[in-house]
Specification:
By secondary structure, the chain is α+β, with helices and mostly antiparallel strands. 48% of the residues lie in helices and 15% in strands. It has six domains: 191 residues, Orthogonal Bundle (Hypothetical protein af1432), CATH 1.10.3210; 136 residues, Beta Polymerase, domain 2; 96 residues, Ubiquitin-like (UB roll) (Roll); 50 residues, no CATH class; 63 residues, no CATH class; 80 residues, ACT domain (Alpha-Beta Plaits, 2-Layer Sandwich). Strand 5 and strand 6 form a beta hairpin.
């Protein structure tokens, strides 16, 4: 494939004089990359050409296409930026230079998998580059999309890492910029490499019913065309394909509700395009008069556009009373903006029409840059970007009728802190639509929210920072709460941090003798500074559990897709291959625990926790061998002791929490003489199958938050056994 396809695409939407710049850039890049090949064996020029073609599908301007063709000549061919500026002008040179700087950061991040700070800095630089000229990031998105299309040429470990970064950063970024055309492709390709078995399953399910579905859609389109003609409405009616990853997400939600693939109604979807906004509502009225609308399935994004500028009417109806059908209605201009987002601005810029809403559409980006001038922590910055700006939004009203947009899942406390820091600190409750709600209530579109507060300075509760309790969602609110606690007395915070750390380690059944080592894991030189950070909420107990877990796990290239019946293959015996291993029942290790192997005489290697009684009291130390965790989706039995004051519904509440975490309870036991007492004191032991320390930490914190629960503790086996025993 040569330049002809790109030329045809560009001629369709740009004036002829702009084509010369694009063709000159192609010829220059072709000569610069001569003789270079990609890891797939293809000529290197295929990559910049495909990058430019992707940008042409979203109808980007000539300078962006030229920069896409030239984006690797500086780093790969040694062409100076000054030469590009002389030959193609300052605009193209600036775009190439911006993309080259991002490329250098990406490669640095890819060579240092363990250092999340490098990857976060990459994202920070990208957002700053976006603020200066969004086209730098459009080129980066197109570059990433073509790399994802050719990911087969890389080894499996790099495939997995790049796909994960694409799903977490690049696809949400395309969504936030409103570029649907790129977003769905990035998601589907990431899905293919991150969950290959599930990907193939969805592909097969869709293919099996494609003919039936397409025939059905044709029938509906003809019925609608006839009805629109009767009402003199000129409309284009299109079948709208659902993309693989969105179908997969839907299957997960439906599975949680006890439904299966056949229940997913919006696989059947239509898109209706008209000329004007009044015609959108006319089309909606016709459809609702023909077929019964489904309750709570209507969204008016024309009157209330999404933060990325997306506008459309969404509805779902029961076709002929039996088949649910999803319908989107929009103007042709809205459709163009919906597919290409803010990238459409440069199409108008090249012509005569100006997109006057452009600055409004990227206001969120300016706000993000402003907020994070105050943010120094890498993890906090990444958390904020993912939660505050990459998630879907909800729109709520103040009592005065002002509209506030917040991330999906936000609470009244998030709104209080969004309005004013002091209002958040003094918040005592909230009313939604005139009714009192808990502070953990998740706001919905159209809610009218009234914040109740004290007149005196009250200060936030430390519980508000617990990720398990669900008080706040946005990093802005979390940051303001942390700042408040940070200003409190240092000795008080250190003491509180010590209590929280000991409590979490006790929860998990983990013994840490060297706090300095743990502090260094979080990059603190002083134990007091580390405890201080825990005390004011800069480090959460869940982060501690995650850090302990990741320290003990050595990820493989590709994770196991289906859970194993037994978790033994999740452990690797160092220096020995093909050696049978099994987990000790005395201490029941899970990923995140420090482990060691004991070579038995007849049954391979038994895997124990390093602090297991049987290991610390083992006489034959020469039979101990180093082992490590491997990446797996296996489940591990863990015994947990719950102490509580008995009440009606207590066990129901515990099992509900466990079920929400998708954890199986394998056994329930009330120890002898420790069941419900006359005074209401109650102890129960649960054996639960978890994926490791991180999930266990989250689960135990949630159980401890249940009313009347006194304590929750992970158990080992108090009865000493021979280290080789699996009993």
């Amino acid at each position: 494939m040569g330049f002809d396809e790109l030329r045809d695409m560009v001629q369709a939407y740009l004036p002829p004089e702009k084509l010369d710049l694009v063709e000159d850039a192609y010829q220059f890049a072709l000569k610069a990359h001569e003789g270079q090949v990609r890891k797939s064996g293809e000529p290197y020029m295929d990559h910049p050409l495909h990058t430019a073609l992707i940008l042409a599908t979203v109808q980007l301007d000539a300078a962006s296409l030229a920069a896409a063709l030239l984006h690797d000549v500086t780093e790969n061919c040694g062409v100076p930026i000054a030469e590009l500026e002389t030959k193609f002008g300052p605009e193209v040179a600036r775009l190439v230079d911006g993309n080259t700087k991002l490329d250098k950061l990406s490669k640095q991040a890819s060579t240092d998998v363990a250092d999340s700070n490098v990857q976060v800095e990459n994202l920070r630089k990208m957002l700053v580059a976006m603020a200066e000229d969004l086209r730098v990031v459009f080129i980066k998105l197109a570059d990433r999309l073509h790399n994802m299309r050719t990911l087969d040429a890389l080894p499996p470990d790099k495939q997995y890492k790049i796909a994960q970064e694409t799903r977490e950063i690049y696809a949400p970024l395309a969504h936030r910029l409103g570029i649907w055309e790129l977003k769905w492709q990035l998601e589907d390709l990431s899905f293919r490499y991150l969950e290959p078995a599930e990907y193939r399953q969805i592909v097969d399910l869709i293919a099996a019913r494609r003919t039936q579905r397409e025939s059905f859609i044709k029938q509906i389109i003809q019925i609608l065309k006839n009805e629109f003609q009767k009402n003199n409405l000129d409309a284009d009616i299109l079948g709208r394909p659902k993309h693989l990853y969105s179908i997969y997400e839907k299957t997960l939600r439906y599975s949680a509700q006890g439904k299966d693939f056949n229940d997913i109604h919006d696989l059947l979807a239509l898109r209706i395009l008209v000329d004007t906004i009044p015609e959108c509502y006319t089309a909606l009225g016709i459809i609702h008069s023909m077929w019964h609308p489904l309750p709570e399935a209507f969204d008016d994004y024309i009157a209330n556009p999404k933060p990325n500028g997306y506008q459309s009417l969404h509805t779902a109806v029961m076709y002929q009373g039996t088949t649910p059908l999803e319908v989107q209605i929009r103007t042709r201009e809205m459709h163009h903006l919906g597919e290409y987002g803010v990238a459409a601005h440069w199409r108008y810029k090249e012509g005569t029409t100006r997109d006057i809403r452009y600055e409004e559409r990227i206001a969120w980006l300016r706000q993000l840059i402003e907020w994070h001038r105050e943010t120094s922590g890498a993890e906090e910055f990444l958390e904020s970007v993912k939660t505050d700006f990459f998630m879907d939004q909800v729109f709520v009203y103040t009592p005065k009728g002002e509209i506030k947009d917040l991330p999906q899942g936000a609470t009244p406390l998030d709104m209080a802190y969004r309005i004013h820091t002091e209002l958040g600190h003094r918040c005592t409750g909230a009313k939604v639509n005139g009714r009192l709600v808990p502070l953990t209530y998740q706001l919905k579109n159209g809610d009218m929210v009234e914040i109740m507060s004290t007149k005196k300075a009250k200060g936030p509760s430390r519980d508000w920072l617990s990720p398990h309790l669900g008080y706040v969602k946005t990093s802005q609110a979390k940051g303001k709460i942390r700042q408040w606690f940070k200003k409190q007395e240092r000795p008080e915070n250190i003491e509180r941090g010590k209590e929280r750390l000991e409590k979490e380690l006790s929860h998990l059944g983990v013994k840490i003798t060297d706090r300095e080592e743990l502090a260094r894991l979080f990059k603190y030189d002083s134990v007091d500074d580390f405890l201080f950070a825990i005390g004011y909420g800069g480090i959460s107990t869940h982060q501690i559990a995650l850090k302990l877990a990741t320290q003990e796990e050595t990820p493989k290239a590709v994770p196991v897709i289906k859970p194993l019946k037994t978790p033994t293959s999740a452990v690797k015996v160092l220096g020995v291959s093909d050696l049978l291993s099994h987990l000790a029942q005395c201490c029941r290790p899970v990923p995140g625990d420090k482990i060691i192997g004991y070579v038995t005489r007849t049954s391979g290697v038994t895997i124990h926790r390093q602090d297991c009684y049987n290991i610390t009291h083992e006489d034959e130390k020469e039979r101990l061998v180093p082992v490590e965790w491997e990446r797996t989706d296996s489940l591990y039995p863990v015994r947990v002791r719950v102490e509580a004051w008995d009440r009606m519904g207590l066990m129901r509440d515990i099992t509900t929490i466990v079920a929400e975490e998708k954890v199986n309870i394998a056994a329930v036991n009330s120890p002898q003489n420790e069941g419900p007492k006359a005074d209401g004191h109650f102890i129960v032991e649960l054996t639960m199958e978890t994926s490791g320390l991180a999930q266990l930490s989250r689960l135990l914190s949630k159980i401890e938050g249940i009313r009347e629960v006194i304590s929750v503790t992970r158990l080992g086996d108090d009865v000493p056994k021979k280290a080789g025993s699996s009993a």
